[in-house]
Structure formats: C-alpha cells, structure tokens
Amino acid sequence: MSEIAKTPEPPYYAVIFSSHRTEGDDGYGEMADRMVELAAQQPGFLGFESAREGLGVTVSYWESLEAIASWKSNSEHCEAQRLGHKKWYSEFRVRVAKVEHEYGI
Q: How would you write the pLDDT of the chain (105 residues) with one tens digit per residue?
C-alpha cells in the first residue's frame, strides 16, 4: 500500500501525471524507481503519491513553480521523459496545480 504524502501547510504545488502504459515493462519499473529516488533529492520536493490500475496517476508535491521547472529540466528526468514518449506511454497528461487548501483525517 502506498503512503499518503505528508505535505506542509498550503500553499504548495502539485504535478499530476496521468497515463496509460504500453504493454510490457521494458525497463520501466527500474526507471520509475530511479525517478522517485532522484525527485526526493531535488530542492523543493515535498512528496508523492502514485496508483495504477489501468489508468496510472502520480502526484508529486513541490514548494514552488521554480522547483518544478528545475525537476523538469533534470538531465536524468529528461531521459526518462524521452523514453516515456518513445516506448512506455500510449497516452499521458501533465497538470500543474496550486494547492490552496487541504484537510483529512
């Protein structure tokens, strides 16, 4: 079971990555694990949540738009994006949202 990210008081930002995968792993699992490890090392990273059952949804949380831009331009992340376009995803969307409010138990 995945953990729910422990985020700070808002405001902060969420990058929502929704996707449909292609068939087979073809190195995807290893790269996905590396991206989680690498993202956690980036300045401004706050956490992530991920689920997949047909439709995959990964939400990463960031302190600022600048932190998101820095992550997007990370060289290893750029290579993962290139491979994702080429062989791992049949369809995807990336959405960036500002979190203004949160609550829960």
A: 578 999 999 999 999 999 999 998 989 999 999 999 999 999 999 999 999 888 999 999 999 999 999 999 999 999 999 999 999 999 999 999 999 999 999
Does domain 12-99 fall under CATH 3.30.70.100? My reply is yes
Phi and psi at 70, nearest 5°, equal -65, -45
User: pTM score, two decimals?
Assistant: 0.92
Domain locations in the chain as residue ranges: 12-99
